[in-house]
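Class, discuss our next protein.
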Amino acid sequence: MPDPNNQEIAQILTEIASILEIQAENPFRIRAYRKASLVIANLAKPLSIVYQEEGEKGLENLPGIGKNIAQKIVEILETGGLAQYQQLQQEIPPQLLHLVDIRGLGAIRLRTLHEKLGINNLDDLKKAANGGKIRQLPGFGEKSEENIIKGVTDYEKHVGRYLLVRALPYAQELVDYIRQMSGVAMVEMAGSVRRRRETVADLDILVAGKPDIPLYNHLKGYNKIKEIPAHGETKITLVMEMGIQSDVRLLAPESFGAGMLYFTGSKQHNIALRRRALERGWKLSEYGLFSGEKRIAGVTEEEIFRILDLPFIPPELREDQGEIEAAESGRLPRLIRQEDLKGDLHDHTNHSDGYHSLEQMAEAAKNMGYQYLAITDHSKSQTQARGLDENRLLQQIEQIDQLNANLKDFRVLKGMEVDILKDGSLDLPVEVLQKLDCVVGSIHSYFNQPKEETTARMIKAIRSGVVNIIGHPTARLLQEREPVELDMLEVMKAAKKQGVVMELNAHGNRLDLHDAHCHLAKELGVKISISTDSHNCLQLPVIQYGISTARRGWLEAGDVINTLPGDELLKFLRGQRKDRDTQF
């Protein structure tokens, strides 16, 4: 049986923190659970592997995880659950906890609404808000009530959708479990997870095998299933513990490629392919490509594309956004791959709000096969992140120079994630930032400015002459914070004119730029950096999610600056800001 994955463990700790906050427990204890949950959710290495390799001590050595929480993780890994969590769940109404995620609410305010208005679920909350009852409570008011109503609307948009970073591990574990079964010829994930959409509604798993294999009995033994609401001879519907539905379909091997094509989608892409088949007198379905009653293709997707006079179209492009026309005319992009990257250009250390040292981050990046890593700790305005002022930055520059003197075939780039302030000015003087190899300019405050102000703010930073990269340009947090109002076309035009790069932040709840913005950047000739915004060594491998989004945005290696070897990258950065003279 598969071990609980990082997302499951993080969710348990998050919910414990929320329940404790609703119960007005010790804030330091609550903060410890939240910090540990955030760290775990963004670790690329499974905690089960850490525990197997290093024991409980290895868990204790992870950022933000002490002995107490390490013991709870051990209990989850060894038993599949946590007694404390199960007890806490009995102490509050079962649907109350779901409301914590509504923007404008939070656990403390939710406790007040529960105590004063008897709110236990979403319907209770909507009735109270729409009835004007919330504004009457001390500490709320009309504006708070309006924000809660808006938060409910946004929340309902996301209900039933799951971040790719959460859904993909479940899909992979289910595939691995089914693959263990005798009689299974092939098993793969399909659907929107295979297309690597940033959020997904369900999982589609396809299995090739004989019709009499006991797939249902095998799935009944899977320990991550909440229920099996429906099952037949060729389709079994599961509801996973996290709540996401998974449809497992059994296909004949001769139809497996056709099934993969059909169930991967998208719907509009499939319609376009079926139309192409009909124009040639054929019929395309999930069972194969047919000429009359004769199946002429179906074992593999490649076979079907070839007979339709098309090259293989990567799953990430199958959105009916010109990919078939591009394939037909030989203009399909050669999509970027993770192995094309030579380094990461946005990372934090324990000098600000990261966990690991300069040396540790460099070693982890080198172990990934990178040639370089940019250290971009926060600037002074980010006081909660222990942002660096001028003096601390200059000290860090000296330390990086000393570190580079002892490194072989690897370089740490001197950088900073500098705040773009409300008026578009930068958080540190230009003459200080000019000493750096790489400056990432990012918005971390005043997210509610009007579109015109935010656009002007961003363009001013682009024109500063010192910013190399605009970090997480829309500042969104998927399912948590909406993107800032921004005229992205005007920002991209300014970036193109100034030679400034736009970041695709690979962090699982950002993926910012999103795929359409990446496509726009490619069309305009604006370069992209794909970086992880890592705050510890174990986050570096989440680069995979940035690569997936880049591929959905039609990006090739030549569109991304951190595919450049070290010497060429520094030459590029020098070309952006000619006042520097750095040698790799």
Remarks:
- Confidence is low (pLDDT under 50) at residues 579-584.
- The radius of gyration is 25 Å.
- The first strand starts at residue 162 and ends at 163.
